[in-house]
Amino acid sequence: MRFEPKSKKELEEMRLLTKGEYDATVVKAEETVSKTSGNEMIAITLKVWNADGSGVLVNDYLLSTETGILKLCQFCEAAGLLDIYNQGILSASDCMDSNVKVKIKIDEGKGDFPAKNAVAAYVVPKAPKREPAGTGYSGSQVANVNRQLEESSDGDDTPF
Q1: What sign results for the dihedral spanned by CA atoms 134, 138, 142, 143?
Q2: Rounded average pLDDT over 94-115
Q3: 104, 58 contact by CB (below 8 A)
Q4: Which of 133, 74, 81, 130 is nearest to 103 (CA)?
Q5: Using CA atoms, how far apart are residues 145 and 160, in angstroms rounded to an integer?
Q6: CA-to-CA distance for 21 and 82, rounded, in angstroms?
Q7: Sheet arrangement for strand 99-107
Q8: How do the domains of the chain map onto residue ranges?
Q9: Distance CA 96, CA 159 (A)
Q10: Tell me, what's the pLDDT at 152?
Q11: What is the Cα–Cα distance from 104 to 125, expressed in whole angstroms?
C-alpha cells in the first residue's frame, strides 16, 4: 500500500471544521476558576455537528467578566436560558444538554500546539414575525384592509 505520510500537525488540521455556523450540543459543563485570571467560569465541551453527521468536540469558556459577558449572554439566549441569565446566576447543570448554534473559527497553532476549532460566537435565533392573532394575515395586510375600509366609508355607520 502506498500513501503520502502526514505529520501529526497535518493530521490534526485535517480534523478541523471549516469556519461557519454549526449545530452543537453541550456534552460537558463544569464550574471552575480561570487559571490565568482567577475568575469564576463554566468550562463547556460542545459536540459540534458536521454536515456528514459526525461530531467534533470543541471547548469553550463562559465568563462573567466585562469581556466575557457578551458571549455568556449569547450562549444563554441561544440555549433558551435567558430567564436564568436575567436572574444573574448560571450553573453548569443549567448548560448541560443545551442545543445551540455556534459560529466556529480556527485558532492557529502555536509552537507544538496544532490549530484548533474555537467558538467565535453563539448564534441567537431570530424571533419569528408575529401575525395579528386569528387573522392569518400579516400586519401590513391588515393595515391595508383597514385603510381601504376607511377610504371607502361614506361616514354612515349603517351596515346596509
Answers
A1: positive
A2: 91
A3: yes
A4: 74
A5: 19
A6: 21
A7: 55-63, 40-49, 20-33, 99-107, 116-123
A8: 8-123
A9: 60
A10: 52
A11: 16
Q: Mind giving me the DSSP string for 53-114?
A: S-EEEEEEEEE-STTTHHHHHHHHHHTT-HHHHHTT---HHHHTT-EEEEEEEEEPPBTTBP
CATH 2.40.50 fits 8-123, yes or no: yes
**φ and ψ of 91, to 5 deg:** -115, 160
Instruction: Look up residue 89 and give its three cell numbers.
Output: 446566576
Which pLDDT score, from 0 to 100, does residue 54 have?
87
Mean pLDDT of the chain: 83
pLDDT in tens, 35-55: 988 999 999 999 999 888 888
Enter the pTM of the model: 0.72
Tell me the C-alpha distance between 99 and 116, whole Å: 21
